């Protein structure tokens, strides 16, 4: 479905509403006996406050920094919206984010992003993978890195989830050399991942006997020809069994009606509530998409509606993570593929702009209430502490306690976790 106000590229043929060892996961015997541990209530409670997690919001199309995190009212580029004070003295954001303004003491703004990239696909790859896209080279998504590095070895649920309108429960191909185990599962229709329910015609007893026979054959094969690949194969089956027993984790209708109302009954509200539910259940990385900010036409009208929708749900989940004691262990990131041009075009729109824009971070080791970097008076250039996608990627990893200068060991090769030419933004970390 084409968005009339968008640039019309393939990246926006969507509805507007719409981690260091090898591959082995452990012996088959250990897998069979140990996967259920984290499903116990006491372990789950401890997990909620100690396990490191990442919650990423991707504002698809290119959120305008001027209508969100870096407003420039009363300038030739500022547009019609005011800047309002926040819970951090001296820090102002767009009036379109009044509820988020009350949560800014939990968050930090980076106002000096310059990726020098104005193309949707390339910009998105850079922001999600921390490297510039190159022919013949594939790098893992930040979610795959987080799942590999942070998920418990005996996790009973997938570690990398994307929530987007129309998500069918299938897997993406975004883990690169880390392997498909760490690729994202795409949710969005309110149902568990594909093929995670027992066939209606298969009885519980028949299913139990079938799996017992499968384990017997796997153990016999493992005793003779054990490899990393067979371990992963066995692990995947056992994880699937646990997933089938925990299908309610993905059912957002189980959340209280008051929370549905507070988050908003629109799709994005439900997706944010699902994200909270998944994080509380021990899933390491959750990405929520909000679309579409590619506002070449009528930028202000569309941002008035879309940012308002985002504000309600985003502020609710930030507050909930803080109240529930999860914020110190959960990194929050709000990013786009780029920002929007300061110049307003003839259609009252803003075009693609990778030169001077903003991202928001919070939780983990991020310095709460910080504002890093700045743009000039009318937002046309970075005036202080310029950063790029590589520095941000290192910062995300270090914010959840990882040493981003380390490497993965895959197939006998050392592969850097993040771009060796970049480093983290130390001033943002505590």
From TrEMBL:
InterPro entries: Alkaline_phosphatase_core_sf, DUF1501, TAT_signal. It comes from the Bacteria. Pfam families: DUF1501. This is Sulfatase. The lineage of its organism: Bacteria, Pseudomonadati, Planctomycetota, Planctomycetia, Planctomycetales.
């Amino acid at each position: 479905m084409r968005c009339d106000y968008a640039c019309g590229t393939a990246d926006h043929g969507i509805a507007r509403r719409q981690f260091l060892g090898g591959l082995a996961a452990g012996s088959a015997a250990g897998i069979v006996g140990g996967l259920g541990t984290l499903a116990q209530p006491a372990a789950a409670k401890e997990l909620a406050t100690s396990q490191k997690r990442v919650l990423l919001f991707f504002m698809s199309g290119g959120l305008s920094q001027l209508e969100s995190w870096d407003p420039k009212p009363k300038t030739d580029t500022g547009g019609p919206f005011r800047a309002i004070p926040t819970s951090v003295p001296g820090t102002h954001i767009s009036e379109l984010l009044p509820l988020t303004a009350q949560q800014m003491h939990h968050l930090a703004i980076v106002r000096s992003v310059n990726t020098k990239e104005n193309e949707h696909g390339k910009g998105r790859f850079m922001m999600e993978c921390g490297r510039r896209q190159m022919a013949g080279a594939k790098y893992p998504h930040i979610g795959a890195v987080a799942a590999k590095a942070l998920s418990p070895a005996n996790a009973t649920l997938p570690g990398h989830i994307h929530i987007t309108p129309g998500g069918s429960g299938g897997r993406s191909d975004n883990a690169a050399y880390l392997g498909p185990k760490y690729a994202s599962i795409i949710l969005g229709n309110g149902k568990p991942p594909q093929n995670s329910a027992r066939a209606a015609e298969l009885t519980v007893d028949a299913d139990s006997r079938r799996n017992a026979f499968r384990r017997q054959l796997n153990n016999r094969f493992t005793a003779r020809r054990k490899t990393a690949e067979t371990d992963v194969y066995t692990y995947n089956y056992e994880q699937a069994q646990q997933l089938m027993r925990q299908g309610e984790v993905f059912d957002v209708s189980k959340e209280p009606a008051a929370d549905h109302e507070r988050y908003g009954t629109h799709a994005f509200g439900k997706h944010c509530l699902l994200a909270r539910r998944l994080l509380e259940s021990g899933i390491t990385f959750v990405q929520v998409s909000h679309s579409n900010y590619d506002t070449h036409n009528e930028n202000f009208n569309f941002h008035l509606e879309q940012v308002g929708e985002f504000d309600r749900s985003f502020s609710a989940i930030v507050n909930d993570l803080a109240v529930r004691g999860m914020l110190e262990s959960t990194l929050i990131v709000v990013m786009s593929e780029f920002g929007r041009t300061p110049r307003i075009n003839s259609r009252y729109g803003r075009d693609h702009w990778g030169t001077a824009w903003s991202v928001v971070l919070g939780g983990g080791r991020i310095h709460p209430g910080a504002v890093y970097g700045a743009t000039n008076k009318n937002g046309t250039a970075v005036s202080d502490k310029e950063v790029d996608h590589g520095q941000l990627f290192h910062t995300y990893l270090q914010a959840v306690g990882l040493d981003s200068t380390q490497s993965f060991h895959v197939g006998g090769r050392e592969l850097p976790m993040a771009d060796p030419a970049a480093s983290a933004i130390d001033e943002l970390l505590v």
